[in-house]
Specification:
With about 575 residues, this protein is an alpha/beta fold. The chain contains 20 helices and 24 strands. Among the domains are: about 130 residues, Roll (Diaminopimelate Epimerase, Chain A, domain 1); about 100 residues, no CATH class.
């Protein structure tokens, strides 16, 4: 196929420096440093390798960033160099580095944004505290400029109600205000924002979104899915110079990388973010985790126009699947698409579909033909059916062996959808921390629906290699919190929902390690403690197999290691 743009043209569009992904000078120096680095000998450990050929061991040797020898203490010592560094694990547990297959990596928001809720843990806040934070930011912001709050969670409010337009008017009537629900499909606005957008009580809902009303028919302040664009496209935002923007992006990426390492993550699929900032913090030695970068919009079009396929890059920074192509709404915000009405809601409501089948068919065919890994956001059974219909169509028109399309979230399933997912070779990445963190939302769905949600048991029983997708911001990204929820299906409030979907600790570890590597076609180089693979591993103070299952999330991360280098140490 002929193209008007060269590969160099694509790289220029994607951002200065992208061309260095495969052959930057600092890669050569890093490789040389690894080749001459001291061996690392880990002894006296309870090692769960996630490699069925050798599932358990007590020692291993790391050389030049890879596992070299695995087995007993004596076997590892026999091949270690005299000057090897030795780490005596003292019977602590060692597992492969955790892999998160869906994370928005919002480091810049964490550093510079107004955080109205706790990003990492269950914590209840008051509406007054939210208003106070927004009022303070408004006092530092010129009149007429947007003020935004982040990480709001409607079921983590001591007032036991959602934000309203009247609450946000207390923060400011001179600034448009948006408070983002951490689920990212709904926001709350003040009167000034609606005024700028020309929206009033008589404005109709757009297709695939809602302008919610109160009991009197007035705007409540809550806006969902496709209705958000009308408000976000008006008014003025705070502006920064190009240098300030890059500094903020770099600082944010370096910050979030440290947080990932602190929680034991060694690989993360970035749903968006600043690619140039990632390259720059890598060059500075501040990138502590491996990145599968998921593209969208102009960058995706440029990849297609220049024959750049998924997985171009190296073991630290590479192009992965597409950014999640959104087909429906949110589980946590109760807008995902259901084939039956939401229980107890009047008038009858089945959630939001944000894309037509014809448009979805065309998009998936375009991406599939280009050799780029398809990735769609689909929560409800209606949306999952639509994605599978489009994938099946594309595969029939243009067969590609082992294409591994991702279905991000893939929340509410049934037996027929599971069969089709298996037949398509698709990779579901359901929410991980929701069974613990969001258990207070499950009552809105009821046990019948919840028994088919975040269905790790159903997927694994069908032989589908489901992988972990925290979806941070919407959910905390702690792998141990996710593992606890998968194993117990019991939330912070003591409620258990969908117990039929429980999986074992070993299975949960697999979901969070080798299955994640499989999702990005990297199972040959990471995801298990196997000789020849990259030495990515986590040292845990306790064994998740033997502690109280309700305490797994509290196990201390003692050390995180990526490529043989310690990225976090308690």
């Amino acid at each position: 196929m002929g193209h008007r743009h060269s590969r160099r043209g694509f790289l220029g569009l994607a951002g200065a420096g992208v061309a260095t992904l495969g052959h930057a000078p600092w890669l050569a120096s890093a490789a040389a440093a690894e080749a001459g680095s001291t061996d690392l000998l880990v002894l006296n450990a309870k090692i769960y390798t996630l490699d069925p050929a050798t599932p358990r061991a007590e020692a291993f040797l790391v050389r030049a960033g890879r596992f070299v020898t695995l087995g007993s203490n004596d076997e590892a010592k026999a091949v270690a160099a005299k000057n090897s560094q030795t780490f005596d694990a003292k019977q602590m547990t060692v597992v492969p580095g955790f892999i998160d297959c869906h994370n928005h990596a919002p480091g810049e928001t964490l550093l510079y944004g107004v955080l109205v809720g706790n990003p990492f843990e269950v914590e209840f806040v008051t509406i007054d505290s939210i208003v106070d934070k927004l009022r303070r930011r408004a006092g530092e912001t010129p009149a007429g400029i947007w003020v935004e709050g982040n990480f709001f969670d409607d079921t983590k409010v001591k007032d036991k109600r959602e934000l309203s337009v009247h609450d946000l008017d207390r923060a400011s009537k001179d600034h448009p205000i948006e408070v983002h629900h951490r689920g990212a499909h709904t926001s709350y606005f003040n009167s000034k924002a609606f005024e700028l957008a020309g929206i009033d009580r008589d404005t109709p809902n757009p297709r695939g979104g809602t302008l919610d009303r109160d009991a009197n028919g007035d705007l409540s302040g809550r806006v969902t899915d496709n209705a958000l664009a009308a408000l976000r496209n008006v008014g003025k935002r705070s502006t920064f110079t190009a240098e300030q923007k890059m500094q903020r992006s770099r600082d944010g990426m370096a910050f979030i990388s440290k947080q990932f390492a602190r929680y034991g993550l060694t690989s993360v699929a970035h749903a968006g973010g600043d690619l140039r900032a990632l390259q720059q913090i890598r060059a500075r030695g501040e990138l502590l985790h491996r990145v599968s970068y998921e593209v969208q919009a102009a960058m995706l079009d440029a990849m297609i126009a220049n024959d750049i396929e998924s997985f171009f890059g190296d073991e630290w920074l590479r192009f992965g699947a597409t950014f999640e192509h959104v087909v429906d709404g949110s589980f946590s915000e109760r807008t995902m698409s259901l084939s039956t009405p939401y229980p107890g809601i009047q008038p009858r409501y089945k959630g939001n579909i944000t894309e037509s089948q014809d448009d979805l068919n065309a998009w998936i065919e375009k991406v599939h033909r280009a050799g780029i890994q398809v990735n769609c956001h689909a929560n409800g059974d209606v949306a999952i059916d639509m994605v599978l219909t489009a994938v099946e169509r594309a595969q029939k028109l243009y067969p590609i062996a082992d294409s591994r399309p991702k279905i991000t979230h893939c929340t509410f399933i049934n037996d027929d959808l599971v069969r089709r997912i298996k037949a398509a070779g698709a990779i579901p990445t359901p929410f991980t921390t929701y069974p613990y963190y969001n258990s207070d939302k499950f009552k809105f769905y009821g046990e019948e629906i919840m028994s088919h949600c975040m269905a790790y048991r159903s997927f694994l029983d069908a032989g589908i290699p489901a992988a972990a997708g925290s979806d941070f911001n919407p959910g905390p990204f702690s792998p141990l919190m996710g593992i606890q929820g998968m194993v117990t299906r019991t939330g912070w409030n003591g409620e258990t929902w969908g117990a039929n979907q429980r999986i074992t600790v070993d299975e949960a570890l697999r979901v969070n390690t080798i299955n994640g590597a499989y999702a990005s076609r990297e199972e040959a180089i990471k995801g298990s403690i196997t000789p020849g693979k990259f030495a990515d591993f986590v040292v845990l103070a306790d064994d998740p197999h033997s502690v109280d299952p309700g305490k797994i999330k509290d196990i201390e991360i003692v050390r995180t290691v990526a490529g043989g280098n310690t990225t976090y140490q308690a």
